[in-house]
Amino acid sequence: MLRTRGNIGMYEAQVTISLKKGISDPEGANTLKALHLLGFTDVKTAHTIRTFDLLIDSKDKHTVETEVEQMCQRLLTNPVIHHYTITVKETH
After folding, report:
1. Domain residue limits, the chain
2. CA of residue 81 relative to chain centroid, distance
3. pLDDT, tens digit (0-9, with 9 covering 90-100), for 1-28
4. Residues whose CB is less than 8 angstroms from the CB of residue 25 and which lie 6 or more positions away in sequence, other chains included
5. What is the predicted pLDDT for the residue at 67?
6. CB neighbours of 75 closer than 8 A, spacing ≥ 6?
7. pLDDT tens digit string along 58-85?
8. What are the beta bridge partners of residue 55?
9. Which of 43-60 are b and which e, b meaning 16 or more Cβ less than 10 Å from the residue's Cβ?
10. How many other β-carbons are positioned within 10 Å of the β-carbon of residue 7?
11. Which residues neighbour 82 within 8 Å (Cβ) at sequence distance 6 or greater?
12. N or C: lower Cβ tally within 10 Å for the chain?
């Protein structure tokens, strides 16, 4: 059963943030180095990716997408160095 309050639905939004091509990823480089030192020499690359999982009350999916886009632009990402994707689904 869908959890609602009046005509408000619950939505799960996931924001996945990665560095744009050409941007230095020291955390990924250090992770790769550590993996090699631990014997995992088959690993060829390691990249840092952040994910935010948000649970949002809203009247519709479009409103959630718009709000999460604003969150990304204002707080969650730096548009100069980050690429991000937003996925929104209604919870049941």
Report:
1. 4-90
2. 14
3. 344 455 789 999 999 999 999 999 999 9
4. 19, 47, 48
5. 98
6. none
7. 999 999 999 999 999 999 999 999 999 9
8. 12
9. eeebeeeeebebebebee
10. 7
11. 17, 18, 19, 20
12. N
CB 83 within 8 A of CB 19: yes
* 27-41 pLDDT, tens digit each: 999 999 999 999 999
Q: How far is CA 73 from CA 40, 42, 57, 60, in A?
A: 37, 37, 20, 21
Token pair for 47: 């990249």
- In the CATH hierarchy, which fold is given to the domain comprising 4-90? Mth169; Chain: A , (3.30.1280)
Q: Name the amino acid, one letter, at 61.
A: K
73, 79, 85, 90 alpha-carbon torsion, rounded to 10°: 0
